[in-house]
Specification:
The structure is a homodimer of 231-residue chains. Chain A is an alpha+beta fold. Chain A folds into two domains: 19-166, Nucleoside Triphosphate Pyrophosphohydrolase, CATH 3.90.79; 169-231, Winged helix-like DNA-binding domain superfamily/Winged helix DNA-binding domain (Arc Repressor Mutant, subunit A, Orthogonal Bundle), CATH 1.10.10. Helix content of chain A is 29%, strand content 25%. Chain A contains six helices and eleven strands. Chain A has helices at 3-11, 65-77, 112-118, 142-159, 173-184, 190-197, and strands spanning 21-32, 35-39, 41-42, 52-53, 56-58, 83-90, 101-109, 128-130, 171-172, 201-207, 217-221. In chain A, the strands form three sheets. In chain A, strands 1, 2, 5, 6, 7 and 8 form a six-stranded mixed β-sheet that branches. Chain A has a three-stranded antiparallel β-sheet with strand order 9-11-10. The longest helix of chain A has 18 residues, at 142-159. Residues 12-17 of chain A have low confidence and may be disordered. Chain A binds a DNA duplex (30 and 30 nucleotides) through helix 6.
Chain lengths: 231, 231
DNA sequence: ATACTTAGTAGTAGTTTGCTACTAAGTATA
DNA sequence: TATACTTAGTAGCAAACTACTACTAAGTAT
């Protein structure tokens, strides 16, 4: 038995844990090299010491679940003001070998652009792993949680605008189409795609810098329509 | 201050509750008189004594969340083997005035038919209230939870087969169309509707009993295709 | 017979989707 | 300077789906 594991068992008192604890776990997605990637960190403690895991934290009595997510993003990844949404609550009895922990999973989306802005060294980016190449163990039920997140964003890409969250404010239509294709996991027809998103974007008068071929026009997301009245 | 309320406050010891408790709350839908209705019960205890509330229960350390839902359905409504699915987890700090309770909300669907089968007196059916006529107070954040459930089944009716859960095994196409129209909240065109669901149903050779007009053919849901291979 | 009610089908215009083929604007190189 | 190469962007058509009107079918009521 490893040292850390023994220490954990010695300090474990069941009566401390006789009702479920609640944690949040965060599936933070971004795009790198045309692939969907997810933030993972080796665990520092038992169980699963050294195994890659999603960032998470216990929910404090005095904070809402959403606030726990914001705190987790800020404390563990130094990220702020990004899109996140509740995913699913995982509550199998034995999902954590220590004690009963119910995990409210959230997913979050951030552009690689914003990650570099927050952390110019690019260190954060090295913690992201392509979801299609996770041929390594994950702690707890975190593989299930990631898969649940991938399925959710694939579904939501069809009828919401979450794809924009993975791009900077300035983007080209080939870039935007690539994001949709990655999220949906299938190729799209250029002409149809453009007709469909035409009313969600506004063209700027700028073009991409010359790059060995025809430059592309730069677009922005159209601001959400005001819910206006006369008030 | 009412008697029950004082008693509650006298017995309240904060230190008993210094981590969030986890409960499940259940939004059980059925159809009555062409309206979507939800199961509600007056609360027997403070807070919100006498106010209508969703059935719910605390999650025990030794059961999964889904098992807590099954137990709640069985103990509180005497229902078994019906369709249910996780809805959303509600965790505002002050959603329960007693203490911090995080509620994992589920929705469930049952045919009025099955309710009568389980409880031939029809007593259970009197606990269902039309979701469009809930002009009375609800306990806690239960109105929000019900609205969340209504929105979810409206969305899922579009791309899943949940509508069938609200009908008995034998149904007619006008009945099925009515269910879709109630869930989606909009009228559908008969001919188009029939083309679209044609591959999800099988006709029987039976017709509805004469009822003052042309009888209708009885259909069943087509069994889900086997995920077969050669094994 | 005929009127009334609900069940069910035919057909058509307009829109969306799947797909092929083209033109446009840059660079690289012969 | 022509032409090949690359990526950006548009045109257009057939098939499928949607919105809608109009019909026929099968029962009951008078």
């Amino acid at each position: 038995m490893a040292n850390g594991e023994r220490e954990f068992l010695l300090n474990y008192h069941k009566e401390d844990y006789d009702r479920p604890s609640v944690a949040v776990d965060l599936v933070l997605f971004t795009l790198q090299d045309g692939k969907l990637t997810v933030f993972l960190q080796p665990r520092e403690e038992h169980p699963y010491q050294g195994v890659l895991a999603l960032p998470g934290t216990f929910v404090d009595t005095r904070e809402s679940i959403d606030d726990a997510v914001r705190r987790c993003l800020l404390q563990k990844i130094r990220l702020d003001g990004i899109y996140f949404e509740q995913l699913y609550t995982f509550g199998a009895v034995d999902r954590d070998p220590r004690m009963r922990i119910i995990s409210v999973a959230y997913y979050a989306l951030v552009s690689a652009d914003k990650l570099l802005e927050m952390d110019p060294t690019g260190d954060v980016l090295t913690h992201f792993y392509p979801v299609c190449e996770m041929d390594f163990p994950l702690a707890f039920d975190h593989r299930t949680i990631v898969e649940c997140g991938v399925a959710r964003i694939a579904g939501k890409a069809e009828y919401t605008d979450i794809a924009f969250e993975l791009l900077p404010a300035d983007f080209t239509l080939p870039q935007l189409q690539a994001v949709y294709e990655i999220l949906l996991g299938k190729p799209l027809y250029k002409a149809n795609f453009r007709k469909k998103i035409a009313d969600k974007i506004v063209a700027t008068d700028r073009m991409t810098a010359p790059d060995g071929h025809r430059p592309s026009q730069i677009y922005n997301k159209k601001p959400a329509p005001e819910v206006s009245g006369d008030q």
